[in-house]
Each structure stands twice: as structure tokens, then as C-alpha cells.
Amino acid sequence: MIDKELLSILACPACQSDLVQKGEQLVCQNADCALKYPVRNGIPVLLVDEASR
Ligand SMILES: [Zn+2]
Fold first, then answer.
1. How far, in Å, is the centroid of ligand 1 from the Cα of 41?
2. Cβ count within 10 A of residue 33
3. Which single residue of 5, 26, 27, 30 has CA 20 to 30 Å from 48?
4. 35 Cα to the center of ligand 1, angstroms
5. Rounded to whole angstroms, how far apart are CA atoms 40 and 53?
6. pLDDT, tens digit, 9 for 90 and up, residues 1-53
7. What's the CA-to-centroid distance between 40 and ligand 1, angstroms?
């Protein structure tokens, strides 16, 4: 699990919107962006190149 305080300061690198953890992914809350970032070994990978829609 990702620390809640860490999650609160993380933002989508594409649009700076908030991210919410869903299982093993961090999901951008911006409906127009909605990128999903992987979490590997508990570390969020906030790279647009690694994200999926
Ligand atoms: Zn976004």
C-alpha cells in the first residue's frame, strides 16, 4: 500500500490532477486524462510513457 500522505502530494504528471489508488494502479481523477500509472513493488511509476488508458 502507498502511504496516504505520499499519495496526497502525488499528482498526474500529464495534467497535475489528483491520483487515487485502485489495486496496483494509480488512476488520474481527471476524466479527460484518466491515465493509469503502475505501482511496482510499492513504488508509483509516474511516467506518462508507462501509463495506460
Ligand atoms: Zn492526468
1. 22
2. 16
3. 5
4. 6
5. 17
6. 788 888 889 999 999 999 999 999 999 999 999 999 999 998 899 999 999 99
7. 19
- 50 contacts 28 by C-beta, under 8 angstroms: no
Would you say 27 and 44 are in contact if contact means Cβ atoms under 8 Å apart? Answer: no
Span from the CA of 52 to the centroid of ligand 1 (angstroms): 11
Q: How many residues does the chain have?
A: 53
Q: From ligand 1's centre to the CA of 29, what distance in Å?
A: 7
Phi, psi (degrees; rounded to nearest 5) at 49: -65, -25
Domain-by-domain residue ranges, the chain?
Answer: 4-50
Does the model's pTM come out above 0.90? no
- Between the CA of 30 and the centroid of ligand 1 the distance, in Å, is 5
